[in-house]
Amino acid sequence: MARSIDDIYDELLVLRCQDGESDALNELVSRWHGRLLVHAYRLTGCREDAADVLQDAWLAIVRGIRRLDDPARFRSWAYRIVTYKSADRVRRAVRQRRVARASAERVPVQDSPEDPVDHADEIGALRAALRALPGDRRAILTMHHLESMPLSEIAVALGIPEGTVKSRLHHARVHLKTTLEQAERKTNVRL
Q1: Who wins on pLDDT, 146 or 150?
Q2: What CATH code is assigned to 1-112?
């Protein structure tokens, strides 16, 4: 796969960071913060959690960047860190909900309803369908189609075999297609 100018520039920034140049780190953060924040949000489903995850991830990235052997692997390495930090955050939130439920004498806690979406709006329907995907499949789908990451890099980022990435990507596409078709049928029935 051919490397772009942006890829080469990111590699140079990583090398400069490894040499201790703080301005290179600032530029690397400014180039990657938005993409990594979106990835954390896709995995956590909450803006505040995503921001916290990303703060933790940047700390881990700064601490570990000198040990990154291949600067060309920065993207998959950073995505993997964000993925693991997001998983930790989601596990912690699930644990806290269980404790809260148990302490509230087993009164079920209502999950907040999803934002209302106008299914006549195709973008709204797509967003709703993406939200309906399980987090791992949503992450794989968006990493592949929105971030243009190859399957091998996604596999490294998520710490799973490439065949698993292919399988989950296929199932995510099928699920997305089914969800969109159902939303379209509902819209057509209302008309």
Answers
A1: 150
A2: 1.10.1740.10
